[in-house]
Amino acid sequence: MSKLVSRALLVSALVLAGGSAVLADAPPPGPPMMMPPYMLRPEPPTGDRLAPGGDGKVLFEVHCGYCHLLGGMGTNLLTKQRMMMGETPDKGMLANRTDLTADYVKSVVRVGKGAMPAQTRVDVTDAELQAVSKYLGKAG
Ligand code: HEC
């Protein structure tokens, strides 16, 4: 191999190596990635999951939010159902409903309903469900 060719190969190898390092470090092209709300699960509260008195809104977002926040599959299905009943699309979000009772929420969570799988006491403890159903159960 001539000196010139080997030097050219060396230079292109360095360019390639440098280039790939730049590629690996660079942020993906385009605007910064925005995660839909249902993918942004808040940190679960620390402490005893069996102790009563938790924050129902936070526990709802942690344990139910990946289906019941904006864009979640529960929200999508319920939006269609509510609209077919003549309601506005915002009623697809459980947090916007005023017709749910705490007892109804508890039974749907433990038994499941249609496309919603039953949630076990490992998914949501009784104490957590108590707080969540109080938060959602605006009809009592
Ligand atoms: C894996 C996704 C998923 C999770 C997790 C989930 N749900 Fe659901 N939920 C759904 C879907 C889907 C529906 C609509 C079911 C249908 O009608 O087919 C639904 C329906 C409901 C309904 C019935 C609403 C109505 O109009 O009758 C309630 C109440 C409810 N969910 C509460 C909860 C609560 C509280 C939690 C958390 C403890 C939770 N869900 C967790 C998917 C989920």
Could you outline the blueprint of secondary structure elements for this entry?
Blueprint: H1 3-25, H2 56-63, H3 65-68, H4 73-84, H5 102-111, H6 126-136
The structure holds heme C.
Question: How would you sum up this structure, described in words?
Answer:
There is one protein chain. With 140 residues, the chain is mostly helical. It has a single domain (37-136), classed as Orthogonal Bundle (Cytochrome Bc1 Complex, Chain D, domain 2), CATH 1.10.760.10. Helix content is 49%, strand content 0%. The chain is built from six helices and no strands. The protein has helices spanning 3-25, 56-63, 65-68, 73-84, 102-111, 126-136. Helix 5 (102-111) crosses helix 6. It is globular. The termini are far apart. The model is unreliable at 13-21 (pLDDT under 50). The structure holds heme C. The site of heme C has 22 residues, from helix 3, helix 4, helix 5 and helix 6.
Summarize the biggest pleated sheet: none
> Count of helical segments?
6
Question: Which small molecules are bound?
Answer: heme C
Low-confidence stretches: 13-21
Question: How many structural domains in the coordinates?
Answer: 1
Structural class: mainly alpha
